[in-house]
Fold:
Amino acid sequence: MNLQTIKVACSNCNMRELCLPLGLSDSEMAAVEKVVSVTRKVARGAHLFHNGDPFTALYAIRTGFFKTSVNTEDGRDQVTGFQMAGEVLGLDGIVNDHHTCDAIALEDAEVCVMPFNLIEEISREVNALQHHVHKIMSREIVREHGVMLLLGSMRAEERLAAFLLNLVQRLHARGFSQSELVLRMTREEIGSYLGLKLETVSRTFSRFADDGMVEVKQRHLRILNADGLRGIVNSRPCH
Amino acid sequence: MNLQTIKVACSNCNMRELCLPLGLSDSEMAAVEKVVSVTRKVARGAHLFHNGDPFTALYAIRTGFFKTSVNTEDGRDQVTGFQMAGEVLGLDGIVNDHHTCDAIALEDAEVCVMPFNLIEEISREVNALQHHVHKIMSREIVREHGVMLLLGSMRAEERLAAFLLNLVQRLHARGFSQSELVLRMTREEIGSYLGLKLETVSRTFSRFADDGMVEVKQRHLRILNADGLRGIVNSRPCH
DNA sequence: CGGGACGTTGACGGTCGTCAAAATTAGTGG
DNA sequence: CCACTAATTTTGACGACCGTCAACGTCCCG
Structure:
């Protein structure tokens, strides 16, 4: 485990507007920065935390890309999300004081460690932080509603189109291209997230490429017709 | 809308151990009871809140049974959960100050209205309440992980078996039978929740009945072989 | 008693999973 | 730097599971 106790200043962090509430006073900002004690580097392929680990902290992603997945004793495995800079990991651990999923870095990453008892302590003093924490958890609940809709009622093409659009939209919000992206995950991981087999993911990519919607070169992706993809997502099968 | 301003005493409520943290002092309990200002009755079939409604409060179910569902502009509809006494509704509304799903009573119900600004205010004073709120939200996130696993990787039989086992387990925790239950929802609603069509739900019930696992009489259900159902959930398709 | 909502069952077809093989890339160690 | 192996991706053929469509049965409530 790679820990750095070098103090990180949220006030200078370029993830600030993603991580923190807006309009904090200087004194509030100083209080909030006490929450972030250390940062931690996670190498590609390494776990940030395992299923079963004791829960002590939430993690804000500074750089890098993660997946979270749950698994059952009988070997089933489900990717529950992909997280990028400015997003928070570890919310699942609060209920039972231990984590119930794995968080794995899909590229070399760095996170801010935010001990949860400190978060609770400071958010009693700084109302904006308190509300911010509530919003982050609520946002995760709403996101998962969307995934349930996707898994419960969409066909393979719709799922993949929705997935791609969501991914570029989030990357674009972080200053990346609207049309070009590099997939940090395998076809199998995409499939697990979308409730599809990797062959179906691959085939569906190929079909999108044939239709001129995207250009696929392994993990490099260029979106040629975003409206086309949006049309796929919003079109009911028939009648 | 049916509002009652009659003060409800959480300290006497039989949902207390489901709703509230344990070990509150008398003064803490008095503070927490300030959160519950009114109760509200919701008739069967009526909405507790609609998608798009402004968010003002969370709701603790005193009696009755609810479903929540999200819907898209193109008419898709997904049941995201079924909720019973002691569970909390409305968490989805916190992020954007308006609700993003519908909450509908499946039988006549009564809820405690807990204005969210009061929750935030009191939970700054009562640490146990603060942590309790965090746990409730985290529990919902973990529950949804489970649903994603179900929707993403289980077959129809497994989904329905897992659904039934979860339902009786929750009912049992509320003092009902371990083996007998009345379904408050239609086959279509079950199907929507499980990502299946109503015909598949019906057929799968019939298959369970043929195998002697359950006795199905419309919405009345008796579980004859719970271990058999558990075996279905935990058995990978083959190899 | 009658109508409408809900549930059951059957036949058929489509979507996606399974199995297999080949192609391409990435990673490793000499 | 290159050879070699492992991992990932693509593509095809086939089949299973579940969705679709349709008809019929059952229950509930006015």
